[in-house]
Amino acid sequence: MLFLNDPARWIKEIFLNAGLSYGLASFLSKVALVLFVMLLSWLSFLIARVIILMILARIVKRTTSTWDDILSLTRTEFSKPLINN
Q1: What 3-state DSSP class applies to 17?
Q2: pLDDT of 4-15, one tens digit each?
Q3: Which of 16, 55, 66, 77 is the most buried (most CB within 10 A)?
Q4: What does the DSSP assignment read for 36-56?
Q5: At what angle do helices 22-62 and 7-17 cross, to 10 degrees?
Q6: What is the pLDDT of residues 49-83, one digit of tens each?
């Protein structure tokens, strides 16, 4: 149950048991948590985008109006990034 209470402490213990110093283990546990949060946010973005595109595709296919044909998913307008560098 230690992981559920404080994941930073759990990760720090893993690094300490690997023989790293306390300062380095503390730093690496924070870096690992930041990377984990970034990974989770990226995965949630991908999942949300797929779900939104699926719902949008169903809406576009079911309507008989022609204005929403612009939203056709054969064009990749919705898969392009919003900000281009």
Answers
A1: helix
A2: 688 888 899 999
A3: 16
A4: HHHHHHHHHHHHHHHHHHHHH
A5: 130
A6: 888 888 877 877 777 776 666 655 455 555 555 45
d(CA 79, CA 49): 8
Backbone angles phi, psi at 10, to 5 degrees: -65, -45
Amino acid at 9: R
> Whose CA is closest to 12, among 3, 38, 1?
3
d(C-alpha 39, C-alpha 45), whole Å: 10
Interval 29-52: pLDDT, tens: 999 999 999 999 999 998 998 888
For residue 51 the two structure tokens come to: 């779900």
Measured CA to CA, the distance from residue 35 to residue 38 in angstroms comes to 5
Instruction: For residue 78, give every residue at least 6 positions away whose Cβ sits within 8 Å of its Cβ, in sequence order, or none.
Output: 53, 56, 71
Distance, in Å, from the CA atom of 43 to the CA atom of 37, rounded to the nearest integer, reads: 10
